[in-house]
Amino acid sequence: MFNNQQIMDLPAHSAINFKPLADRALLHKQLNWLAFYIPLIGVLIALCYFNETFASNTQTYLLIGMPILVAVSMLYNIVNVRLQGFAVREHDIAFKKGVIWQQVTILPLARVQHMEIHQGPIERKLDLASLKLFSAGGVSVDLQIGGLTHSDCKNMRQFVQNYRQDETNPQTESVNE
Question: How far apart are CA 157 and CA 106, in angstroms?
Fold first, then answer.
């Protein structure tokens, strides 16, 4: 007989103990933003140098606006990285992110189809990596956790692989009655 009881006390996802990202995750984020801002500032300097009309119209705004923009984005990165966290639990992986719009993503390990560890040049230098988890039936990344140490990524990948092997190879127990 089918029974569908209503659950009165829902488990709170706030009870999840999230582990913070690696110590160098903030440095990685700041270096990535600087890699964007330095060429942008270079282009703006070149425009001001070669185009006097542009320079006279925008010089004051650029001299005030660009440092403010860089400072605000660097402060935002500090808050953003500090609010991110991940948790590897018995049957799922949880990741929280967001400053203004906060998001918690929980991916059941049974749904993970495959995983990738990604390291860019700055991440390699800082011994960081990103773990990408793809679920069954999906083409795009279902969960991406950046700012992890490379060893954490490898350990998480091994944990998920072991979980999947346990799922696909259930051990049969014989029961003597």
Answer: 16
